[in-house]
Specification:
SpoVT-AbrB domain-containing protein, elongated, two-stranded antiparallel ribbon, transcription cis-regulatory region binding, Pemi-like Protein 1, Chain: D, two-stranded antiparallel sheet, about 15% strand, SpoVT-AbrB_dom, DNA-binding, single chain, alpha+beta
């Protein structure tokens, strides 16, 4: 029976995307290593922190590999915006698509010193 349990643990895929970010948020009380382990980034008893951190960055839409949008159309997301003449800042569809956002998704705006932080409001927050 122990062999069957070990085989099942190896079949489990590490969390990625929104599922990973949600799980990490729920595990805020744990260390980085423990979070990685809980999210499936342990192989053969060793925690792969590098893969875990890369997956978090990818889930947040940040690529360290210099990947482009891949379809050859339009501009590549630059992660920079400018304030328009009317005072608005527009986030393009490249970002919303990359994050998997849907029409009607809501965000809380938190202002800091020289930064704006958008926090997605989920059903759990309601």
């Amino acid at each position: 029976m122990a062999k069957k349990t070990a085989a099942k643990k190896q079949d489990i895929q590490p969390l990625v995307g929104k599922e990973l970010l949600k799980k990490v948020k729920n595990l805020s009380h744990l260390s980085k290593r423990e979070k990685a382990k809980e999210c499936g980034y342990e192989i053969g008893g060793r925690v792969n922190l590098s893969s875990f951190m890369s997956a978090i960055l990818e889930a947040k839409g940040i690529s360290l590999d210099g990947d482009t949008n891949g379809d050859g159309r339009g501009r590549e997301a630059s992660y920079r915006v400018k304030v328009h003449k009317n005072g608005q800042i527009v986030l393009g569809s490249t970002y919303t698509e990359k994050m998997g956002l849907q029409v009607g998704d809501e965000f809380e705006i938190k202002l800091g010193y020289k930064h704006i932080h958008l926090v997605q409001i989920t059903e759990d927050d309601s």
